[in-house]
Amino acid sequence: MTIKISPDEIKRQREFSKKAGEILKSRTASPIAHVHTFGCQQNVSDGEKIKGMLAEMGCGLSNTPDGADIVIFNTCAVRENAEDRVFGNLGALKHEKAKNPDMIIAVCGCMTEQEHIVERIKKSFPHVDLVFGTNALHTLPELIYGQLTGKKRVFSVPKCDGTIAEGLPIRRESRITANIPIMYGCNNFCSYCIVPFVRGRERSREMSDIIAEVKQAIESGAKDIWLLGQNVNSYGKELGTSFSELLREVNAISGEFRINYMSSHPKDATKELIDTIAECEKVSRHFHLPVQSGSDRILKLMNRHYTRSDYLEEVRYIREKIPDSAITSDIIVGFPGETYEDFKDTLSLIEQVRFDSLYTFIFSPRKGTKASEMDDFVSAEEKGKWFKELLSVQSQIGRGMYEKYVGRTFRVLCEGRGRSNEKLFTGHTEQGAIVDFDGDSSLIGKFVSVKIEQAFEWMLMGKTID
Ligand code: SAM
Ligand code: SF4
Ligand code: F3S
Questions:
Q1: Is the domain of 25 the same as that of 158?
Q2: pLDDT classification of 338: cutoffs 50, 70, 90
Q3: 229 and 256 housed in the same domain
Q4: Could you give the number of structural domains in the chain?
């Protein structure tokens, strides 16, 4: 059962913030916290709440752990290399802690929801003071207060289906982009994926809470609204509403801004939703629809609940309804039992669809998932070869995709200094393509018209026009 954290509990935590802040202030005039977030945009959003709570305790934020009073690693468990990076970074903190024994080191996020990880931290990383799970995020002030008042190491990973905590303070990473979770958790149990185990059951925020947050973000100057969830297409099922309804409501908010969302599951991307997106002028023309594989046999083993032809039909419908849209995807190479024939089905799907860009991953077994127990006969070396082949096929397609934009003019949100050159400025088109262009800093946070002059594999170059 989902637990809604009561306003009284949030108030109680704010009291702990105050008390923790007083102790921190008595130790040093300007306490410093460092938060390192790994993983997806949902985790970034959690990181913004962690920073919000730390700021309420009076902490300044720094980009490095050096000299910090509090260090928090907000972790990701999606692939083994994500976890390895966290362990590497944690190991490196040992020296910092030796120099500054009062430093509070905490680990939270998806990794901490796995028992074997908590055990490893307990045994091998004695300098970690605090571990708290994804459902204990809102209790950070109480946990920090406990550490400041002499508590021993704390491991707080409550077992429950998931929490929803409204009213936490947020320190957004960007003035222009606002990450707004619309739901948490996942019920899909794709056989390779750890997320349902570490993020709990799917649960949606009340639409009124989301709308209030979007309005507040827009009033503070945000122009790029990201609605976040592991499968936004199933938003609101338990509330008797839908993602289409939410999009219409957000689209109706007055002001000039763009609506993006992440992630979509192809099994729930209905024609009705695509029709809604076509009608909502503020919703971006970028569909990120992770397909994972082009082989029906592998899709079934992955528990994805759609076939290659279902997926191709969705792509056809998107392009019929919104011809100017971009479609991107995620692919997993080397799923257990995948043969070269299956892999070739993935290549042929990529050639057929011609994605604007792809996020590609080699299968990483995750403890507790079904796929981690399936027989896997293909060597890592062979998987590496397939992976390279996939990259080279997509690289040829990608180059062609961006060339079609040359000579056309796009509405681009200016997000900051250029990626290719500090003298230029950068932003995204409605299709999600990155563009660098000329201008001055007064453009940051505004929509500008940019004529595309040059295409590269990953980005475009253009000139602003009046
Ligand atoms: N909920 C989203 C979805 O369904 O598309 C995103 C889930 S995950 C955070 C992002 C991507 O990581 C997935 O689409 C998948 O391609 C990849 N991924 C997840 N688990 C993986 C694993 N065990 N090994 C390799 N890639 C994985
Ligand atoms: Fe993982 Fe599948 Fe849920 Fe996405 S939909 S988070 S891939 S289980
Ligand atoms: Fe990673 Fe957790 Fe996101 S596992 S990808 S940070 S939901």
A1: yes
A2: very high
A3: yes
A4: 4
